[in-house]
Amino acid sequence: MTQREVYLDYAAATPVDPEVAEVMLPYLTERFWNPSAPYARAREVRDDLERARGTVARLIGARPDCLTFTAGATEANNLAFVAVEGHVVVDAIEHESVLACAATHARRTVRVGADGLVDPEAVARAIRPDTELVSIELANGEIGCVQPVREIARVVAAERARRLEAGETTPIFLHSDASQAAGALSVNVATLGVDLLTLSAAKIYGPKQVGVLWASEEVRLRPLVYGGGQEGGVRSGTENVAGVVGFARALELASERRGEESRRLAGLRERLWEGLLARVPSAVVSGPRNPKRRLPGLLHVSFAGVEARRLVIALERVGVSVGTGSACAASRMRVSHVLEAIGMPRPLAEGSLRLTLGRGTTEEDVDYAAAAIADAVRAEAARTGLDDAAMAALAGGWGAR
To answer: Which member of 66, 101, 145, 328 is catalytic?
Structure first.
């Protein structure tokens, strides 16, 4: 097998699309002016910034003045949570930034099923009279499950109507972190029925450290960063014009290519899974059985009794870059909270890889990776004296097929 370079960790980082880099470049060079300055050239840059804001707003079905640009999705999630003071509801497999924010409030954490999906009725049961925020991601970036956000929006709307009828004044809002979903799913805020939405440029072939929080007019945001009053007084500091312009173009491209690219990636994902399963019959895939409930370019696969960290090293030697979960958890080489929350047996969780495909992935890449991963798994299994039957026994019949 001739070595090639195959990148299968697009959920952790995407390269900046050449078209995005092209529109950003002028604001890093000749159009460098501070958009808050009073002279004509600075005002031109301010106009460009506001046009980009308008583009992002149009693509998510929102008003431009309801957008706050941030230094990434983590900051946007923090802004969403500081907008409320009362009780919050989250699910157990949210991104670490959402769970960390929830930990600063009185909270209830909703369990998920073995497929990672949130039951809207469980959310309804978790809501208390003092609940002010429900935060459910649109899609999980580790096992790829697409959450029923629209159904959960109806639960929140019903509670809001109940409070209104009862004369209760405590507000309740629905937030969704759609960072991992924007390249594959619609993020129209009206269709989703959310009150706050987080997006990240870094997940859609835009620049890193650029995010946005959309908040409906009913939500009163409170600043995390104080200073000159930029971003409507919510996020002070000189605006990242290049980043925002790049974000807008990246979201445009993602919207234009969403349907065709999702179909292509779903086909590649199935090709990769079939290639792995043919070589390692004990392999287990996580997430919903219904492929429509899974992100098209994400395959979470586990090999019982094998250490994922050793697989990552072995695969890197043959040019295949893979993840073991969210980059936050993988950097500490621990079993992620997501796998714990879905009840995956530890011998299986410790042998889990997150394989994410992207615009640069080809059929040849997928075939090469399937063979390389299978070779690495067999080598590790042989090292520990496991055959496929023993690995299947350790898996205990867990997981979707």
So the answer is: 328
